[in-house]
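Postdoc handover notes: sequence design on the structure in folder B. Input tokens:
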């Protein structure tokens, strides 16, 4: 196994990537904000197994511009040493952990303006500045690391759609891959924010996934979308969540579900002070 390298600067990152590319190696990037869990490790394994990358970079940067002032930037879990241990065990080649000054030097003044899936009236309704921050940092990570492939979790489904669209629209030479969400045995999607849940709220949290599964079965059986969604919304609210949305959308562009060829069900809800999001694939309704 190669020793894990920690790069703190763009120059150091690029020197390693250049040497690998010179040797004809395929490079994968897994962008993260740290607080790594088994879902992140699965992304690094996917990078090697399915994306055939000989070299895997994990970036760790808690990106301030994707947090609104009232959000959890300052208390977002930071576990760098434990993260590095996990990535060493996972056989990752390089951790790119730039400082805020590297990413946002004095006078930084450029942001990517988004349309399409970034304005789908889902996360953007509750976090209006979030995706501009995500897209800008991911574009920077792509141009800094110049990976052949980048792997993202489908748990942040709208984020994945925004990044895929941005990459295509800006002709960034990176293949963007979305990987299936990793779940606890009771269905809760793995998330760095799950550490915020009290024991009581942790016990309730799988309601989001079980409700989405129940909705999926009814939709696939041909029931009307809106009545299924209404039932799902009240199940989530009755369980004690403050629901932000439960929506069925076109899986490709997050537009209306009515004439979609592929469907996706997406949810966001708050329990106590923690906001959880999740989504699942929904088979097209059986035709009568
Ligand atoms: O999904 C995340 O952890 C972040 O939004 C990302 C893609 C690393 C950008 O900061």
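Designed sequence:
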């Amino acid at each position: 196994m190669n020793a894990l390298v920690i790069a703190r600067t763009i120059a150091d990152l690029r020197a390693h990537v250049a040497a690998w590319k010179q040797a004809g190696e395929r490079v994968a990037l897994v962008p993260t904000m740290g607080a790594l869990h088994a879902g992140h490790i699965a992304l690094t394994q996917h990078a090697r197994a399915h994306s055939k990358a000989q070299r895997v970079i994990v970036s760790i940067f808690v990106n301030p511009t994707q947090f609104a002032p009232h959000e959890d930037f300052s208390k977002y879990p930071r576990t760098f040493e434990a993260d590095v241990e996990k990535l060493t065990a996972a056989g990752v080649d390089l951790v790119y952990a730039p400082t805020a000054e590297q990413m946002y030097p004095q006078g930084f003044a450029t942001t990517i303006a988004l349309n399409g899936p970034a304005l789908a009236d889902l996360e953007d309704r509750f976090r209006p500045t979030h995706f501009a921050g995500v897209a800008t940092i991911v574009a920077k990570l792509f141009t800094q690391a110049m990976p052949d492939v980048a792997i993202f979790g489908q748990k942040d489904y709208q984020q994945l759609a925004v990044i895929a669209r941005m990459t295509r629209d800006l002709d960034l030479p990176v293949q963007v891959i979305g990987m299936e969400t990793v779940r606890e045995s009771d269905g809760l999607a793995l998330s760095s924010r799950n550490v915020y849940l009290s024991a009581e709220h942790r016990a309730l949290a799988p309601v989001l996934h079980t409700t989405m599964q129940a909705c999926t079965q009814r939709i696939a059986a041909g029931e009307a979308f809106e009545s299924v969604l209404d039932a799902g919304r009240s199940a989530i609210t009755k369980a004690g969540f403050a629901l932000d949305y439960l929506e069925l959308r076109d899986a490709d562009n997050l537009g209306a579900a009515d004439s979609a060829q592929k469907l996706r069900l997406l949810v966001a809800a708050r329990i106590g002070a923690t906001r959880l999001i999740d989504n699942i694939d929904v088979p097209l309704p059986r035709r009568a």
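Context for whoever picks this up: The two ends are 56 Å apart (CA to CA). Don't rerun without checking with the PI first.
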